[in-house]
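User: Predict the full complex structure for these chains.
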Amino acid sequence: MLGQYAHFVLAAYGVTILLVGGLVGLSIWRSAKVRAALQKVERQNGKT
Amino acid sequence: MSIWEFANPARFTRIVSRFLPWISGAAALCLSIGLIWGFFYTPDDFRQGSTVKIIYIHVPAAFIAINAWFMMFVTSLIWLIRRHHVSALAARAAAPIGAVMTLVALLTGAIWGQPMWGTWWEWDPRLTSFLILFVFYLGYIALWQAVDEPDTAADLTSILCLVGSVFALLSRYAVLIWNQGLHQGASLSMDAEENVADVFYQPLLFSIAGFVLLFVALVLLRTRTEIRARRLRALMLRQVA
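Assistant: Here is the predicted structure of the two-chain assembly.
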């Protein structure tokens, strides 16, 4: 389907999926981590 | 409702929580349509062969790379003039996204350039200005990390952002300013003669819309995280005191 340039096209898509996927994953992970830490501290401070 | 109401961190967080799932869903839908259509259902270019399929990631990534900096420019100006913390945090949140998109544009460009130009890299005006833009992104992120006091960090990074805007502009208009180098003209233009053929153009528009929506979703998510991290820091400092 991609002919003689298959490895160039697949490498470009692979790099993009890796970098953008990593960015999305890290953003969601940090969001969850900070939210959990904030809820913990707010509970300790007697706030909901 | 005034736009300045978004400057209230609590209100901003509430609005983001309500709209983020919809924006993320729209981004996933547009990206799926654009990339699947472009990758599987468009023909090879008569000159570039199947490498033309790289356009569906390279052009949207480059578009976001430049426009993320302009978004940071606007929010930095708002910080410097009106001192709204949400705007400074939004600029901070956008920088890693812009850096990743610039890196994607540089890498996919190099991968595309090798079979078409016979080289991975050339000190072409547009390539070079993009590399400088990437270095500015790294410097901006490093400056936020290096300064402990948040308002001072916001001031310094805002000034760096204003300076770096020159290179963002150069990245956008390099092919027009210097009519030389290997990089071709703009793929998307108001001039129909310059545009890519319709068969590539339509899925490309979906892909660009998907990247824009993904950028908006990530900026909102990361800004909400920065707001919460700032509140967390304030509460912890209060506990220590």
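Helices of chain A lie at 6-44.
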